[in-house]
Amino acid sequence: MTQPGGTPGPGLRTGRFGPFAPGAEESRSGPVVLVESYGDPAETAPLLPGEEQLVARAVPSRRAEFATARACARAALAQLGVAPAAILRGARGEPLWPAGIVGAMTHCAGYRAAAVARAADVVSLGMDAEPHLPMPGEGELRLVTVAEERRHLPELAARRPEVCWDRLLFSAKESVYKAWYPITGRWLGFEDAVITPDPDTGTFTARLLVPGPVVAGKALAGFDGTWTIQDGLIRTAVAVGH
Asked: What single-letter DSSP state applies at residue 136?
C-alpha cells in the first residue's frame, strides 16, 4: 500500500485523462489524475491528523474504505506536485481538498478511487462506482429516478440487455451530485435531474430540473458524463470545464 503522498504501489493504478472518462484511453497531458485501488486490502492505509476522528467509531470495513480512498487521493495529488494533506469532510460529507484543487472520491466493495485536477483547469469533478447489479426492487428504483427515466428503461434494456440500466442511472446521479455540490453548496435531489444514457458511446447527459449554477458567465443547464462497465463495476464520471 502507498504511504500518504507517495507513488502508487502494486495496489494502486494511476492514469491521466482529458476528458475525464475512467476506463477510456489515457492522455499523458490530460488535466485529471485518477488513482484506483482494486480489492479489499487487509491492511488499513495510514491516516493523517484530523482524519482519524472522522472514522473513530466506524466498523473496520468502513474505516478501510475511508483510508484507502484517501490513499488514492494523496497518490493522485502527488502526481500534481501537491504535498500530502489531510482530506477532511465538509457540511454534507464532501471532501475538502487543498487550495486550488478540485476532486472526487468513491468506494464500493472491491474498489476505491480518487480523481483530482487543478481548479485552473477544471471547475468540478464527480465520480461514482457501484456493483454492476440491478437495484434491489421497484421501490428503490422509484426513489432514485423520475418517470421519464423509467419510461426509457425498456428501450435501453432491449439495446444493451447486459447492462443494469437502473443501477447506472443511480450511479450517474451520484456523480452529478458530487460535481454539482462544490459549485453550488446546495442539495440536488434524485428528482432534480434527468439522466439520458447513450448505450452506444458510454456517455450520458444530465438535464437539470432546477436552476443551475453560473459557470464561465453562463447558467449551467446540465452535465455531460461518461459510464463504463468493467470488472463487475459500473463507473460513472462528470467533469465540468471552464
From this structure: S
Last residue of a domain, one of 89, 120, 151: 120
Distance CA 22, CA 35 (A): 10
Q: 69, 94, 120 — which closes off a domain?
A: 120
pLDDT (tens, 9 = 90+) of the chain, 242 residues, equals 233 333 333 366 777 665 566 655 555 668 899 999 998 876 678 899 999 889 988 898 888 899 999 999 999 999 999 999 999 999 888 999 999 999 999 999 999 999 999 999 999 999 999 999 999 999 999 999 999 999 999 999 999 999 999 999 999 999 999 999 999 999 999 999 999 999 999 999 999 999 999 988 889 999 999 999 999 999 999 999 98
Q: Please count the helices (runs of H) and the strands (runs of E) in the chain.
A: 4, 13
- How many other CB atoms are found less than 10 A from the CB of residue 27? 15
Sign, Cα dihedral of 29, 31, 34, 35:
positive
Identify whether residues 115 and 146 lie together within a single domain: no
Distance CA 105, CA 43 (A): 19
Q: Which domain holds residue 161?
A: 130-229
Q: How many domains does the chain have?
A: 2
Q: Can you point out the beta strands (E) in the chain?
A: 12-17, 32-38, 88-89, 95-96, 101-108, 111-118, 122-131, 193-198, 203-208, 214-215, 218-219, 222-230, 233-241
Question: Is position 154 within any domain?
Answer: yes
Please state, in angstroms and rounded to a whole number, the distance separating the CA atoms of residues 185 and 6.
Answer: 32
Contact assessment for residue 67 and residue 4, using Cβ atoms and an 8 Å cutoff: no
